[in-house]
Each structure stands twice: as structure tokens, then as C-alpha cells.
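Data availability (excerpt). The following record was deposited with the supplementary files.
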Amino acid sequence: MPRPVKCRRICRFPQETTFYPSDYSGGDAVTLTFDEYECIRLIDKCGFSQEQCAQFMQVARTTVQKIYDDARKKIACMIVDGLPLKIGGGEYRLCGGDNSACFMSDCFKRDIPEKYNLFKGDNIMRIAVTYQDGEIFQHFGHSEQIKIYDIADGKIADSKVVDTSATGHGALVEVLSAAKVDVLICGGIGGGAQAALAQAGIKLYGGVSGNADEMVNAFLQNNLQYNPDVHCDHHDHHGEGHSCGGHGEGHHCGEDKHGCKGN
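Predicted structure:
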């Protein structure tokens, strides 16, 4: 019986999950899994050794070596053959920001929960919208403000505008999670952010534009027009599939790890 795969810890989702050549003429996309992306980020961007990367991802060094080799081959295929690159899937779990285990100096899991820990009363549904000058801002990852609405008995009981400091897709999801948001209404949003929202248990209503207050009221009246297949305009896709030995869709490993054990 093959040894079960251990879930690899990742610190954040990528800012973008789809890349296409400017003169793309066809061919299957190369699929880089989230754990392969994290291995490349830690070793090639952050300067980790394979031993340090293994310690952070909480797997064996030999596992990191294989992940890294597979990821580099996929990136080589993408560059040499002029193929699109997509990032998604894999065997992973998101870092919890535990100081005893996470030694990343920029880990947003440690700073955001305290800063954005907003009180939420009993029986309150909390809705957030990406916000700018009264309108729903159209690019989630660049949202410098969100407007938060507390809903009681089907009506807006309170609202406030919160600065986010334009921290990027992953950190913005952490802001929403720390603020105890149940629902997000936004315009365009990338695949990495959608994956993070799903993990955080935040319901997404994307592809929405217009006045923020009016759209929240439309949601409360079950009249909100949204796009369940929303994506950022610059994430427009030309095709599906993968090449160079992709791992398929994979799965996210929750607290019970879904049977992920061993190295």
C-alpha cells in the first residue's frame, strides 16, 4: 500500500493564479500546485535552503527536493514551450501563524487577527464589500478599503469603513476572517483569493458593481445580481488542462487533514 501524502504547510496563496504568454497560440496549460508554488517562493524568492523549506512546510527534506524539482521542470516547460501557467490544487494546509512554528517575518497570520478583531454581537450576519467612494471596488486584491455591514433581523444595523492598507489577496482574506465576515460582495477576484475565502468559510458574491449600500440591500432582498464564475479581467483564460506531469486538482487539507499522514 502506498504511503499517504502528508499535507504541506503553505504561508500564503499567490497574488495571481493564471499567466498567459502575450502571443499565446494554443496548447495545454502547465499546472503548478499551491505547495509547489510555495516551495519555489521559499527557496528561489526568500532564499531558504531545502532544509529550511522542509522545516517550514513540515515535511521531509527529500519531499521538498522532489516538490522543488517537479516545480522547476513545470516552469521550464512553461517558458521553453510558451505555455500558460496555472496555480491551484495540491496537498496543502494554510499556515496558522503560530510563533513557535512559523518563522516568516512577514507572516500576516500573526499581525492581522489582533488588528482587525472587530466585536460581533449575537445573531449578527456580517457582510463586507470592497469599497471606494461609495461604490464597490472592482479589483479585490487592490482594495484599500472595505465597508462592513452588520445585519440584524434582515436589516442593516450598523456599518463602518475599514482601511486595509492594500495588503494583497491573501492578507485581505485574513482581514475579512479576523473581522468575522460571513459574506463578501465584490467585483473581480482571482482564483487564489477564492480558494482562501472558501477555506475561511466566507461566502463569495463576485462580479458585482454599483453603489455599495444599494447592493447590500439588494442582497438582503434576494435581488443581488452576481456572477458565480467571476474572475479578474486580467485572469481571462484561453483553455484548460495541464502538461508536464501536473498533480491534478488536489485538495485542501483541513484540521482533520483528510487522512494526510506521513511524509
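Summary of structural features: Residues 234-263 have pLDDT under 50 and may be disordered.
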